[in-house]
UniProtKB/TrEMBL annotation:
Keywords: ATP-binding, Chaperone, Nucleotide-binding, Stress response, Transit peptide. GO terms for molecular function: ATP binding; ATP hydrolysis activity; ATP-dependent protein folding chaperone; unfolded protein binding. One of its GO terms (cellular component) is cytoplasm. This is Putative heat shock protein 83 isoform X1. HAMAP family: HSP90. It holds the Pfam family HSP90. It comes from the Eukaryota. ATP binds at residues 120, 124, 166, 171, 186-187, 210-215, 265, 459.
Length: 793
């Protein structure tokens, strides 16, 4: 038995392992543990725990220092340069490491999910098969046995045992020591280095292993692991055996004829008590399909099957006698039963179609692969199969689903299971937080397979690097091309369905991804004043623009009905200018982030300083002279409610409107933000912009107020009319009145003044009875003089 010392990995930690290929060899010394040796000279020949293929002979005049039963590391003195002889010599030490502690870190801290042990072991088996296939090109005798290259997994759920067998290259005794006895030494990495040295690195790019710790993942679920292996270059079969909590292992020659294998490696895992659930055949089959579905070699699992057959039914003796007497009975009674049996079942049937030429793959094959991989029942709206070469090489197939998931939570949660990352056809992860796709494209599904992704040692986490950023950029570009293809399709229903399900995602992209605004903007859709039933694109809007129109006009509201009835539209509709209706809560923020499209600025028609391209400076000057005093009078009455009172150029039928400041919230945004402040009025007041009260000088009400301003500016009815005008404009402009009850009282008061005595009938006011009865008393009314109805003669 080879026992590793506590410093068995020190050279690896210092040099990375490639120089130290051989693990612990037997130590030969003359009674080093004999305490009676005293001061006698002892000549010892010994091998380093990590052998460098040369022995070290040392002569000592005192025995080896022992500490806790272990050799203390030797101290070496470095030779100083001749020019620096005055400096004291530096002392060189070897790193010390607890093998058991290192194993504990690898097993319990490296992997976040126990079930990846099967992925790692299958990857090792696939590498062994790949090595054999590669070597057989120059050494055909390695395949003389003629056995198929495959992987077979058998389980014993009663005893908690998993057996994984491959018919690969196998290992010799020394390779067992090198690969399994030396932690963090990768046999695959060593093999690839040999290929590179021989300038044949490209001959076999399917090898998966990198770090040399995948085998130890078996101890995640196992108390004991037994490895039985036979190399085609050796006549002997060896057995490696190790335990989870031990820093040692054993190697012996297999002598039991029943356990001999022709070629390859057989791993037997004796599972821990809490992990025996992994020994169920269905569980193993599920793990293989999830992680190793696309390994290039067939993987068979031992499954229970059944077939139906007809068997005779045992009859009662009395019935049997009747049947004997009945000469007409032509056949005996039978029943159908299911006969159970165990057999090998191919588990990885689905082929990685992304490795095939896109010209050779049919649409039906793409759709079938999509349904199987992502458990969907509907065909995707579009797919994109491509290969990227250059700085980063990877293959990918992307899909646009035809329906959003229930609840549409993906727009909030950036972590989805929609992108499956493979490295050399082995599943790594589908749990990403925006590394491969931004949040707004999280609905895109697909697979990405690359050979040179920067993974951590557990192969579970994609590290941030320049390669990942380049890959992300190319994946996003392909996704946009795919969506653009849907929008340009002759079947408009496809894009309508896409927009209904994923339109909010693209609007979110306008807010989060400034770099792709040019790709996002053509995909947006909105209702407009000239297309209230069917959404249009920004390209269609620009094509319909008037020759003198410089900007893209929009209005934000809670519905198309509210948008088309707003007073802000009056003059624009007269001039036949199209206005976009932003009726989705996210629309306004998305458009504000875009700022412009094809050099046309987005302009909110509910903001001040609206320029419709028809300014008449002389007329504006006349209006200011005529209504300037009235504006000041109205501003004095409204006080701090408005920032200013101005003459409007956007009204034609309404007397007034309340517009937002250029840099303030619109009425729609204020409504949305007010709903999100949880009753905190201070934050709303802080963020709310200035309001400008605009009047229409052509309207009769404004003309009457202009006369009142000149003749009787202190008239109470005129001042109340200004208050009512403001409150009415507040509602018609989309704002929420601060006190609806007061507004209602003002309206009732004005109605009373307007209707008093109009039809010659006295104004009656009903007194609410204490209780409802059918008596005549409840119908008596109190007569009030008309002059008293408004409280003002």
């Amino acid at each position: 038995m080879h026992r590793l010392s506590r410093r068995s990995v020190s050279a690896i930690l210092r040099n990375g392992g490639p120089r130290y290929r051989n693990a612990a060899a037997p130590i030969s010394l003359s009674n080093p543990f004999n305490e009676s040796a005293g001061e006698s000279d002892t000549k010892i020949r010994w091998y380093s725990v990590l052998n460098t293929n040369r022995s070290i002979t040392t002569v000592s005049t005192r025995p080896f220092n022992m500490r806790n039963g272990l050799f203390v590391g030797n101290r070496y003195e470095s030779t100083a340069a001749a020019s620096d002889a005055s400096n004291p010599p530096a002392e060189k030490y070897e790193y010390q490491a607890e093998v058991s502690r290192l194993m504990d870190l690898i097993v319990n801290s490296l992997y976040s999910n126990k079930e990846v042990f099967l992925r790692e072991l299958i990857s090792n088996a696939s590498d062994a098969l790949d090595k054999l296939r590669f070597l057989s090109v120059t050494e055909p005798e390695l395949l003389k046995d003629g056995f198929d290259l495959d992987i077979r997994i058998q389980t014993d759920k009663d005893n908690g045992i998993i057996t994984l067998t491959d018919s690969g290259i196998g290992m010799s005794r020394q390779e067992l020591v090198d690969c399994l006895g030396t932690i963090a030494q990768s046999g695959t990495a060593k093999f690839l280095k040999a290929l590179k040295d021989s300038k044949d690195a490209g001959a076999d790019s399917n090898l998966i292993g990198q770090f040399g710790v995948g085998f130890y993942s078996s101890f995640l679920v196992s108390d004991r692991v037994v490895v039985s292996t036979k190399s085609p270059k050796s006549d002997k079969q060896y057995v490696w055996e190790g335990e989870a909590n031990s820093s040692s292992y054993t190697i012996r020659e297999e002598t039991d004829p029943e356990k001999l294998i022709p070629r390859g490696t057989r791993l037997t895992l004796y599972l821990k008590r809490d992990d025996k659930g992994f020994a169920h055949p269905e569980r193993v089959q599920k793990l293989v399909k999830n992680y190793s579905q696309f390994v290039s070699f067939p993987i068979y699992t031992w499954q229970e099957k059944g077939y139906t057959k007809e068997v005779e039914v045992d009859e009662d003796p009395s019935e049997a006698k009747k049947d004997e007497q009945d000469e007409k009975a032509e056949k005996k009674k039978t029943k159908t039963v299911v006969e159970k049996y165990w057999d090998w079942e191919l588990t990885n049937e689905t082929q990685p179609i992304w490795l095939r030429n896109p010209k050779e793959v049919t649409t039906e094959e793409y759709n079938e692969f999509y349904k199987k991989t992502f458990n969907e029942y509907l065909d995707p709206l579009a797919s994109s199969h491509f290969t990227t070469e250059g700085e980063v090489e990877f293959r990918s197939i992307l899909y646009v689903p035809s329906m959003a998931p229930a609840g549409k939570e993906d727009i909030i949660n950036p972590k989805t299971k929609n992108i499956r990352l493979y490295v050399k056809r082995v599943f790594i992860s589908d749990d990403f937080d925006g590394e491969l796709f931004p949040r707004y494209l999280s609905f895109v599904k697909g697979v990405v397979d690359s050979n040179d992704l920067p993974l951590n040692v557990s192969r579970e986490i994609l590290q941030e690097s320049r390669i990942v950023r380049i890959m992300r950029k190319r994946l996003v570009r392909k996704a946009f091309d795919m969506i653009l293809g849907i929008s340009m399709s002759e079947n408009k229903d496809d894009y309508e369905r896409f927009w209904e399900n994923f339109g909010k995602h693209l609007k979110l992209g306008c807010m989060e991804d400034r770099e792709n605004h040019k790709r996002l903007a053509p995909l947006l859709r909105f209702f407009s004043s000239q297309s209230e039933d069917e959404m249009i694109s920004l390209d269609e809007y620009v094509e319909n623009m008037k020759s003198e129109q410089k900007d893209i006009y929009y209005i934000a509201a809670d519905s198309v009905t509210s948008a088309k009835n707003t007073p802000f539209l009056e003059r624009l509709l007269e001039k036949d200018l199209e206005v976009l209706y932003l009726v989705d809560p996210i629309d306004e923020v998305a458009v504000q982030n875009l700022k412009a499209y094809k050099e046309k600025n987005f302009v909110d028609i509910s903001k001040e300083d609206l320029d419709l391209g028809d300014k008449n400076e002389e007329k504006e000057k006349e209006m200011k002279q005529e209504f300037g005093q009235t504006c000041d009078w109205i501003k004095k009455r409204l006080g701090d409610k408005v920032a200013s009172v101005q003459i409007s150029n956007r009204l034609s039928t309404s007397p007034c409107v309340l517009v937002s400041g250029r840099f303030g919230w619109s009425a729609n945004m204020e409504r949305l933000m007010k709903a999100q402040t949880d009753g905190d009025a201070s934050s709303l007041d802080y963020m709310r912009g200035r309001r400008v009260f605009e009047i229409n000088p052509e309207h009769p009400i404004i003309k009457n107020l202009n006369v009142a301003c000149t003749s009787s500016p202190d008239d109470e009815e005129a001042l109340r009319a200004i208050d009512l005008l403001y409150d009415t404009a507040l509602i018609s402009s989309g704002f929420t009145p601060e006190s609806p009850s007061q507004l209602g009282g003002k309206i009732y008061e004005m109605m009373g003044l307007a209707l008093s005595g109009k039809w010659g009938a006295p104004t009656v006011g009903f007194q609410q009875p204490a209780a409802q009865t059918h008596s005549q008393e409840t119908l008596e009314a109190e007569v009030i003089e008309p002059a008293e109805a408004g409280g003002q003669k």
